[in-house]
Design goal:
Elements: H1 7-21, H2 26-33, E1 37-46, E2 52-63, E3 69-75, H3 81-97, E4 104-109, H4 118-132, E5 141-145, H5 151-165, H6 186-204, E6 213-217, H7 221-232, E7 237-245, E8 250-255, H8 262-267, H9 277-282, E9 286-288, H10 292-295, E10 300-303, E11 324-326, H11 335-343, E12 347-349, H12 351-354, H13 357-371, H14 377-401, H15 406-424
Parallel strand pairs: 3-4, 3-5, 6-7, 6-10, 10-11, 11-12
Antiparallel strand pairs: 1-2, 2-4, 7-8, 8-9
Helix pairs in contact: 1-3, 1-15, 3-15, 4-5, 6-7, 6-13, 6-14, 13-14, 14-15
This protein binds nicotinamide-adenine-dinucleotide.
């Protein structure tokens, strides 16, 4: 469904546009349009049949002016250095937009985790740490889960890092299992954060939640908790979700005329976010093609899968009824899609604002690890709501006062904070 988008070129183009609006010095732009540090390494893994598979791992640290670099690790077959660079750069803007004292990084391995069993996955995770442990740490760079990685994998990685440095170091990685240094509320944080921003946007349009229909792409960690909170907290209805079908090598949309029940669908979904089609049909759901989610007659589109999904070929499928696009995924909309949103008065909640709930609770997790004192779930969720709401209000203010598109306003706020930190640290010479 994607246009062969290079995510890093897209991230650079978005940055360049706002850098011009802000009149950044060319050398400052140059420093920010590229990552500070990049690592690419081999990961040989012994398979259970005795053979060795060689995978390629990455860690990219885009900027750490505001604090230790921070960002997830993806296990996905089509991972490349450029997707990781883009995601690392977006992390810098994300931590800045929610104003938490962290920078931006991202890592990954080009691998299909579903093709490995648990012991192979554990060896892969431990070896990833063995290759990169000197460059990460609670005061340097703190990884977390993302597409294809799980709390259990974070637990293995934290354990391996602790072995390498010789002491228990839970703060090296977030998204760990509960009881193993993880924070209550982390699992649902990104999805809940999406809903908090959607709720704010709905109020702007006076959308009555009970008559508001949303359509999701994806049904993994982000989409599941966003769909649950959208239906249960706000009382909205979800027309459909979509997911990748590994057997058929394509994606499909799972819809229900009366609105899907996300809690039921969760029970027939695997850990990678693929819904069991047969069980869905048995329960009265309809299976539609991969693009059906985007063409639904709904008020809100919530892409929660991968980059470049709303692009020049799919954007024309969007119904006239759509008023809000909430980017649960990172980089789901291309510049052509942004033009369409602007021209059609579609209100955009940009990715690094919309999905910042995960990194916000990751930050809370690190704070709790440092204190060795853990908060209740209610405390975590309340603090999350406060942070997301404040970030949303701050961006809206700039968007309105400067007559800026929401994505540009979010970039302007984030870039300003990062450049200030660089200045304060003496990284930028005053001409
Ligand atoms: P996940 O692996 O749990 O789920 C991904 C979902 O997308 C799955 O349902 C999968 O079947 C589906 N999918 C994959 N390719 C697809 C395709 N071509 N068409 C339709 N569906 C497809 O991942 P996640 O953690 O939910 O992350 C989703 C997005 O949100 C990613 O862009 C990720 O970077 C971003 N994100 C995640 C977090 C987090 O805390 N997990 C935080 C911020 C941003």
């Amino acid at each position: 469904m994607s246009d062969k988008i290079n995510a890093f070129e897209m991230a650079q183009a978005q940055f360049d546009h706002v850098s011009e609006l802000l009149n950044l010095e060319p050398y400052v732009s140059e420093m920010l349009r590229w990552p500070m540090r990049e690592f690419k390494f081999q990961i040989p893994v012994r398979r259970n049949n005795g053979t060795i598979s060689v995978f390629y791992g990455y860690r990219v640290q885009h900027n750490d002016a505001r604090g230790p670099a921070k960002g997830g690790i993806r296990f996905h077959p089509s991972e490349t250095l450029d997707t990781i660079r883009a995601l690392a750069m977006w992390m810098t803007w994300k931590t800045a937009v929610v104003d938490i004292p962290l920078g931006g990084a991202k890592g990954g391995v080009a691998v299909d985790p579903a093709a490995l069993d648990d012991s192979e996955k554990e060896r892969l995770c431990r070896r990833w740490i063995d290759e990169i442990w000197r460059a990460i740490g609670p005061r340097q760079d703190i990884p977390a889960p993302d597409v294809g990685t799980t709390p259990q994998m974070m637990g293995w990685m934290m354990d391996e890092y602790s072995k390498m440095v010789g002491e228990y170091t839970p703060g090296v990685i977030t998204g760990k299992p509960i009881g193993g240094g993880g924070s209550l509320g982390r699992n649902e944080a990104t999805g809940y954060g999406v809903t908090y921003t959607v709720q704010k946007a709905m109020r702007r349009f006076n959308l009555d939640p009970e008559n508001t229909l949303a359509s999701f792409q994806g049904f993994g960690n982000v989409a599941q908790h966003a769909a649950i909170s959208f239906t249960e907290f706000l009382g909205g209805k979800v027309a459909c979700v979509s997911c990748w079908d590994r057997d058929e090598g394509t994606s499909h949309t799972v819809s229900h005329h009366a609105g899907i029940n996300p809690r039921f669908l969760q029970t027939i979904t695997d850990i990678y976010g693929s819904i069991n089609k047969d069980k869905a049909i048995e329960a009265g759901y309809t299976i539609e093609d991969s693009d059906a989610w985007i063409s639904k007659d709904v008020d809100i589109l919530i892409p929660c899968a991968l980059e470049g999904q709303i692009n020049s070929t799919t954007v024309d499928l969007i119904s006239d009824r759509v008023k809000i696009v909430a980017e649960g995924a990172n980089g789901p909309s291309t510049p052509e899609a942004d033009d369409f949103f602007r021209d059609n008065d579609i209100f955009l909640i940009p990715d690094f604002l919309c999905n910042a709930g995960g990194v916000t609770v990751s930050y809370f997790e690190g704070v709790q690890n440092d204190m060795n004192y853990y908060w209740t779930r209610e405390e975590v969720i309340e603090r999350l709501n406060t942070k997301m709401t404040a970030a949303f209000d701050g961006i809206i203010k700039v968007s309105e006062s400067e007559q800026m598109f929401m994505r540009d306003a979010a970039y302007a706020v984030a870039i300003d904070r990062v450049v200030k930190a660089m200045e304060q640290r003496g990284w930028l010479f005053v001409p």
